[in-house]
Here is the input.
Amino acid sequence: MATYDLVVIGTGPGGYVCAVRASQLGMKVAVVEKNASLGGTCLNVGCMPSKALLHASEMFEEAAHSFAKMGVSISAPKLDLPAMMNFKQQGIDGNVKGVEFLMKKNKIDVLKGSGKILGTGKVEVSADGKSQVIETKNIVIATGSDIARLKGIEIDEKRIVSSTGALSLEKAPGRLLVIGAGVIGLELGSVWRRLGSEVMVVEFLDRILPGMDGEVARQFQRILEKQGFAFKLGSKVTGVESNGKALLAKIEPAAGGAAETIEADVVLVCIGRVPYTDGLGLKEAGVALDNRGRVQIDAHFATTLKGVYAIGDVVAGPMLAHKAEDEGVAVAEILAGQAGHVNYDVIPGVVYTTPEVSSVGKTEEELKQAGVAYTVGKFPFTANGRSKVNQTTDGFVKILADAKTDRVLGVHIVGREAGEMIHEACVLMEFGGSAEDLARTCHAHPTRSEAVKEAALAVGKRAIHM
Here is the structure.
């Protein structure tokens, strides 16, 4: 029987990062992975492949609509979807091989099969009808999440697809109906819109991007509508008939009322994700779940079973790869007797559309609800020199600061490269910085990041270029 200091179940960003950090700290580590390749949802059918298609489709649209006005004359670009999918696959393969290299470099054993917790210190690994029991001092559950399903709508990954199927369509659908106006639905919707699809998004709530700052969501919706998106907010899809050539989606107002039928060639179900705990034997082992099916943990990531910990999408908090990574590092350091910690107030979120949307910290709605007095500084990219000369002026930067202390409480950006710009706000907030600190930090000119400085100046009503 093999014996380890730590066995991590799942090799997504949370799991493999946890394993690497534990190995760095001198532990003997194994990872358990049931899929053929390492990397979890993120590397194989999530974050990474979607970014490849977002980038490729953006280049396709730029060539078709933006090159000419910059004085670059080319014939109309032609879509070679199989080649684009190959580009995506090359990215997946490269990242997966990178994780395999990290396992070898850090002397981490990779155990292929499904992991089941038999109790404290014991994990059963099963594959191809055979099983072995692994002994370990500690276990980390890092099994991630699965697509959330909509009752009465069966996903076949051909015409009615999840995010997984939407990454591998054989042709651009003429009409794409997206159920859910969250991050994943808008990202994948934008890929296929750029490649020629008519895109309609149906959302149960009366707004897009639930949980993000309301003003940001409203302006971003207008930008997407300008790009060709159609939205049906405050609506729900109650069924999809798939017998005919076209799919027939039945849509009703969320508050009740007359239904309508919309034709589509592909329906993408993107209503969120749920913790993945199938086959782990958690109930039998004594690992408690909460009322949403997430593994219950304490402040040190410990579950209700001694020696078993959990991180990432399978526990409470935002379902983000980088949040899982930070938790993986923290739990490894705790197991090594160090002070592992995650600051949940500074977890950035990004929507990788064009333009991007990024945020960190509190929204205006959250500050109002908490009764916190705050000041707002905003600066539009229409007044930013770099954005003007590149003719990419959609969006703005918004900074929320404590009215008394000037400490930055939240930053929200809609604009090109917003996902890169948000990180100076993250560093500032990690150190408890103020809007004044940000405003007095010299920013290179001309850069889009100057808009962040100007928004910080605007908190004190002294923006220069507005």
